[in-house]
Amino acid sequence: MKRTLPLAAAAAVLAAPLLPAPAAQAAVPASPAVGYSNPLINQRADAQIYKHTDGYYYFTATVPEYDRIVLRRATTIQGLAGAPETVIWTKHASGAMANHVWAPEIHYIGGKWYVYFAAGDSADQWKIRMYVLESSSANPLTGGWTEKGRIATPMDSFSLDATTFTVNGVRYLSWAQKDPAIATNSNVYIAKLSNPWTISGTPVRLTVPTYGWETVGYKVNEGPALIQHGGKVFLTYSASATDSNYCLGMLTASATADLLDPAAWTKSTSPVFAGNAATSQYGPGHNQFTVSEDGKSDIMVYHDRSYKDITGDPLNDPNRRTRVQKVYWNADGTPNFGIPVADGATPIRLSSYNYPTYFVRHWDYRAKLEPDVANLADSQFRTVTGLSGSGTVSLESANFPGYYLHSRNGEVWVEKNDGTTAFKDSASFYQRSGLADAAGVSYEAYSSPGQYLRHYEYLLYTQPVTTALAQQDATFYRQ
Known about the structure:
Elements: H1 7-15, E1 37-38, E2 45-51, E3 57-62, E4 68-74, E5 86-90, E6 99-109, E7 112-120, E8 129-135, E9 146-150, E10 159-167, E11 170-177, E12 187-195, E13 198-207, E14 221-229, E15 232-239, E16 247-254, E17 266-267, E18 282-291, E19 298-305, E20 321-326, E21 328-329, E22 335-336, E23 344-345, E24 350-352, E25 358-363, E26 366-371, E27 381-385, E28 393-397, E29 403-408, E30 411-416, H2 421-426, E31 429-433, E32 441-445, E33 451-456, E34 459-464, H3 468-473, E35 476-478
Antiparallel strand pairs: 1-23, 2-3, 3-4, 4-5, 6-7, 7-8, 8-9, 10-11, 11-12, 12-13, 14-15, 15-16, 16-17, 18-19, 19-20, 21-22, 24-35, 25-26, 27-28, 29-30, 31-32, 33-34
Signal peptide: 1-26
Pfam family, one: AbfB
Keywords: Glycosidase, Hydrolase, Signal
């Protein structure tokens, strides 16, 4: 966490202009904070959550036994954790679809439900192909399902992880497949669909694993997932073996481009989401996207493990867990996934009431305001029960668990809880309605009644609040 600012950067900070004049009235953020608790569901990998127009979230995932497809539903994302699970399909006794049932996804297309999944053969568990189920029932948990058969691709080879989406009214299928002519395990492809189970035209290969982070253990690009924002489309995919090296890469294209032209896509040169030892999250991947209950925030759904070392084949380890966390958007319109956050409550960001594009963050231990925080986790904090109790809260750093915002002689720092009463008191706050806007939040220092967390010339302090400007400086929005 200790960082030394380069001389050039230090000079730039010293020369930086003062913050602009405060806004007359700040707008409540368009994407307010959401709160979930991780892991959402244990022993469920390759998870997908689909929000339907009937008010329900539908959940499906790979089960450790690789023998069935399950669904559950709830009116909230967190509610899926305790929702009853229904088996809607079981593997065949022999032949095709009798082995390795993997990565189901549920979609509602043209008034019917469809589940895409991959399965192996009883005679060869690695003869994995993609298949589709269909249901006309309003409730897919109680309705019957019809097998629509295998998704035929020009190459009759290892294929899996089918997902479908529409861009500008055109429905596509994207999936992972092995090309026998290329020395990789799987690559990501895209094609148009003529109906939910039939590819139209010739598929196009979008990405082949070539970077070092894509080829650890196996040369893998798989698990595509698409999210759209600001006139662009972003296709994430998983790379490397399914152990602690599993991670996410991303392709980017304009929403108006020809998505069947590989040249329309730009590939990230480094992972956009990877394991994090500080938060004890390893091998995050095979993600999908959904939206929050209020429809205002994008949510990433993914799996990982809480430990790094695995005995034997990681595919035989049952403990991949479904997790969720909010997606944030950079100023340039690209997604910022941050890090896989620690188990427990998901973190929030605190934006300034009077400087809405500025966020509370830590830098070299000091808490400050700054816009465009590229290292997202520096500006994320978990709201936890106050270290001093008594109805207080504490704000724990997302990327340095055990470190908290606390007041040191009136200055606010992010430092490790040393267990002393003095530290606990200085890191505890009464969470109040925003002093400048009740929709916001203000934090009164537990150890200094009447003093509040506020910003002044970029830096955070705990100080008395006696003016309207100070009330604005002490008001934040949770995002």
